[in-house]
Amino acid sequence: MKDLLQSINKRTIRADLNSGVVVFLVAIPLCLGIALASEAPLMSGIIAGIIGGIVIGSIGGSALGVSGPAAGLVAVIIAAQVTLGSFEAVLLATMIAGAIQLLLGVIRAGVIAYFFPTAVIKGMLAAIGIIIVLKQIPHAFGDDLDFEGNLTLFGAEGTNIFTEIGAFFAQVQPSAIIITIVGLVMLIVWNRPVLQRFRFFQIIPGPLAVVLTGVAMQLTLGWIHPEWTLGDSHLVNIPADSGPAEWIMLPDFSQIGNIDVWITGLVIAAVASVESLLCAEATDKLDPDRRITPMNKELRAQGIGNLLSGLVGGLPITQVIVRSSANIQSGGKTRFSAIFHGLLILVAVLAFPGFLNLIPLSALAAVLIMVGYKLAHPALWKKMYHTGWSQFIPFFITVVCIVVSKDLLIGIGIGMAVGILFVLHRNFRIPYTYQVTRDNNRPVINIKLSEVVSFLNKGNIITTLRVVPDGAHVVIDATQTMYIDPDVIDGLEDFKENAAHRGITFAIRGLDQLTGQAMPSPAKSLLKELEAHRKEEPPSSVVDNHDVSNSDMEEIAPA
What we know:
By secondary structure, this protein is of the alpha/beta class. Helix content is about 60%, strand content about 5%. The protein is built from 26 helices and eight strands. The chain has helices at about 1-5, 10-35, 40-60, 75-85, 85-105, 120-140, 160-165, 175-190, 195, 200-205, 205-225, 245, 260-285, 295-310, 320-330, 335-350, 355, 360-375, 380-385, 390-405, 410-430, 460-465, 485-500, 520-535, 540-545, 550-555; strands spanning about 65-70, 315-320, 430-440, 440-450, 450-455, 475, 485, 505-510. The strands form three sheets. It has a four-stranded mixed sheet, with no helix packed on it. A two-stranded antiparallel sheet has the order 1-2.
């Protein structure tokens, strides 16, 4: 919290307030839609959104990440209610998931986020952008039967996003089309230099102007033509006939001994942790200031958020890329934008739910279509293509698998597998360099091993040694190698034993210093170096001026 207060100033506060308003407007239908899709009480989504904004925003590590109920857990919540028999039991499982996440943060398991390739992260962002656009097309035409928060292509009873896009022509609402088109035009021109010269366009964010214009249009278009009146199904729908006493639900603590509750808690913790860490990594890549999220701190914050959400009747929480990207695209600067959006949700549902229920979903569709377009911008595809096939193919596969599958994590997993295949291929091809010379017509082959030689390199090295001609002299140079796998050592020893039968002389340099040693951690080595400098240098040293502390370094050091 101290770092948050230090980061807030006159320059950031205005941007955070504007961005918080935009994220609030995007979050309201998402919270309600995800609760509806999860077959949970509608206010459970609102509660999760409030806690995700205020609590996780206050104590989390992500500078611009926004947390709330996530579409990726919809299927888990539906199945859990069937298995456990009640939503109250799911709340208990959510609390267990929060406790597990908190423990993972304490033991510094957040480091797993750094092992996801950049191509896969960018593929996830592009895929979500495509799905956001596709899912908003029906809303743009006035077909608002599907819930706002669903990010999968497939719906109930065999329907999918493409059949829905075909079906919405029967549900076309002229008012919705007009509001969407006007909204998109406003968003396209709002930040143009010619308009930004005027103070009005600098103060009012484009998405907020789109929403306010949409409210005005939906109130007036019905006067122009009676058939253009938008019904309640085309507007935001916040329950306005209940109070806080009816919103809060308590967990069923009597189920604490139920093994299925614990299994559900483990599943929620696993899915929520991976999604949150991936979204935090993706948000860091979108952050204009390139700030790096301390993943363990973020994981602890997510755990505390889920503990509280389960305790008072909210859905499980993760960091959500839709809200986070909307926060960044709207100019958010610090975590205060996330906190402010949570406060706005709380005030809105308490003070003026009736006004929020005037917002057309088509106006929000225009905002989200622009968010999705920026996530899957054609320039990103062009850039990934020019970086080479080893980057583009995992990126493309991740996009395709997420877009056509029902599960964000399945798409990411397949993309990861493809990325790992490229890594294995590179490792198989480049485990060493070699030089061939001659000594009195006798071939001398010097093989210099790479810094790291894993068991994956064994086949390539052994294959190379097998083509060495009889009578040659072979030197294996491991003096620059930091780690060599025991399987590779066994292979070299086997070749050495057989070499004598072929008249081959064989020598290995630098192997003794590696046998039985673990590969050192560069981060921990750097930490030791900095600690040594702290003891040697006065308090005014460069290291102290940069405020590099033990806790900071441990946060980024691999576990």
